[in-house]
């Protein structure tokens, strides 16, 4: 399609947008103003915001979301750096700074990008011809230091007190835009920097709380009008000047001609018209016959004077407007505004409403308290377990706390809506829990499918819709509403977390081998999608546009490169993809003469197989019904006991010399009551002898008789109550004796059934907190776990049968779903059709994932409560605002995380957050530096406990407590500083042949010296000495991770560890700050402490909360080494409590030479004996040869 005609802009002066917003004219910039006055600026408070409903009313939840949106204006993304391109391969992105106005743009001849190699020698499997690649460019214009923003905010709002580790993000840009290979602006790609816009509003005294989207749209329209054809430097500079003026940044940003631009160029494949693969490119479609047979050059030159054309005369379609994935602003901005507007009209989800309720309307019950124990027993009964479960390795079931969490989730949310938090400390099996939840949900959808007489009944009758998707007509077939609500999305702020889960679930190693090869649910496509040998297409990662495109290429079309196929499957073959599979089944039934009867028979057989598996599972489940009846009877007896005791105590209190009921057992209480009854009877008889006679009555005018009768009545009443008390004590004795007998019999039955938690409850009244209980599966009934796993596998087969029988309609729905995933335009479809497209995709791939940053780009077409299940992993790392859009779309949400691990990273100062909060009239409860997404979810969870050290106590949702990752010292350290001793050690030591060969035990390596910033050179030398010792012991470099609290320390480490690295992936030593290491683990972890020796602020900050040390220690599976000044750190918080777990080690940088040298010589001799020894000269010669070979290849490629 040719580029739409755009009028050239008129060059008449315009009033800047920051002046248009308030109509107050240009005012002196705050930055300059504050150079003289140094006073914080005050802003008027927003009294109302106009809502979509036309009412001047802002409810509390909308204000919270708008406040968070304003915060996100100052939470931009990290720009890519030129150094990221060091050692790039031809498929990698090339990042380069354009330093001079004379330097060509990346699409111009002579540019740095034009000298970079493009991918070569790739064959398109469909055409058999070479693939053609060209460049796609992103320009970041007017690069400026982020310190410009932070300094302005500090002057306006006040600076934070205390230490803060320097931000990783050093530079930002005024705006960014995408350009084709020939330098044409991609419509819709222009992105204005939100923080630069904020700065302009701040300096002009304008309202920074609204109108960013409107201003960005206005400037984008100007950009698209000004930047026509192949963009040159003059046009870009003129646009930059215009943007600076419109944002009121003349006093802040320099002359555009002197500014630095950052270019990010990535290779994209030029697709032929016959290809229906959705490509991650905005370059457009080039007919396949235009593809050169020789190696492609770096550019495809296009002539656009007559609608576009290549040098060969072939047409080229101009880019289509699309959602931008530019890493400049926060990716949450658009979604937060949209949700705020929806909430203003009352359109919200129950999960989001509970999340934004500061005083969640729940009654909290503490796990481990006596009042909850009976309820826990009830929640763990077999009939509360889901029918299906994951086919786990060695058929291992969930332990006590995990199963309690699953059952509670399904009971609370299964038929309803809302949010729950699960507390998942490190190594406690969060992924294990989530995969059982996935199995339960898939099985529930299979139950709905099994109710259908025919597979075709899954679709609404006569409801086919034809709309427009991606510019072409596309059918959609709405499903029955009963099949909605089973969609599962895993989300996180941590890209690694979502990848770990979605890549792990399909892998063959994550199910018991006894199910293979029988358990195969699109296993080949699962292998293509996950990149590892897989048993099922059970999950896939979405997120960025490139990930979404790859997902569709892999699952739907079966596309992978030759190298990827060989690496993954060990053989070169091209699967047909789901598209081919569906087409094959559709064609198969079309060619059958009795297709209808055949389809019906196949459906009935699949339903019968599923129901048979359920019946087998049910038989085992109900085998303990008689025992459960006994348990329920005991529960009833125990529930009656407080009533009996209360009645008895009331009766006792009415008697003289009352017996303290709770201080006596029934036998001794009964004896005392009987003795008292006898005394009362004797007193009545004695009183009988004192009855006054006639003369005494006459002498007292019968008053003596009346007094005696009153005393007699009182004594008789006391005697009656004493007799009743005896009867009540006898009843209590009988109740306790009977209960004791029933309990003893039940203990024998529970012991036989290995229901350890029931044994504990019967004996002590408690199930939680006991180590043995926590380490065991609640109901390890023989073969029950296998039977439940078979139900899940049969559920997948039932899904697969349904997809085959309804291949034509499912294919149409998936075509629409693929367009929706890509964020392409669509029209003419009902909400049911859109939901059905997604529901059809989730029938194929039960679990999809995305980071919160990419959530609305992946799932933006889904509306309020149209996602069945949202599972958030590592929720403790997510800011509260990150989850808003996902929660609005979700019906049910489960947040799994730990507030005692890493907290969300906030780049906005506390002072600015506080000022913005008051601006919106929001309670300080919603400050995003006080909470994470996890803590807000926990607050809405009724079952949990208070945890953490004394000065960091907080309420957490259902806790997982069995730790299975670290060796004892690391476990004890974390349990002591963070979890108040509530964790249970469950780590199983590896086999001797898999144990780390490190001889040095976990401990502390003392190194002291004067720092440069946070770097202590002596610690670096000690690190090298330790690495030498580990290498001598035979520890593989890939088994070592190095962490530090400070970025300044991290910058020094790579150069020090380079000599100790090996080849390939296993030779890389993973280095990072503690913040980058959550979710990762290694057999050996080294923590280099660092910290400024001239000022205590940095070191005090590192131990101000247990989170950093907790995360660092729990990355280590077998060894944890701390390097730092032991004398200094042992006086500080946290470390002062755990030094006994980190004994001083005798490894010193100055005297290790002899022993280590001898070990190194022995290691060299072993290598020589096996023929694997290479001298340093030999290694260098090999590297030089490889370098020369690569240079020769690149020179030949350029000449070609």
Task: Describe the protein's architecture and organization.
The protein has a nine-stranded mixed beta sheet, with helices on both faces. A five-stranded antiparallel beta sheet has the order 1-5-2-3-4. The protein is built from 42 helices and 26 strands. 46% of the residues are buried. Strand 16 and strand 17 form a beta hairpin. It is of the alpha/beta class. The longest helix is centred in the middle third of the chain and has 51 residues. The N terminus is likely disordered. Among the domains are: 266 residues, no CATH class; 152 residues; 181 residues, P-loop containing nucleotide triphosphate hydrolases (Rossmann fold, 3-Layer(aba) Sandwich). The chain is globular, with a radius of gyration of 36 Å.
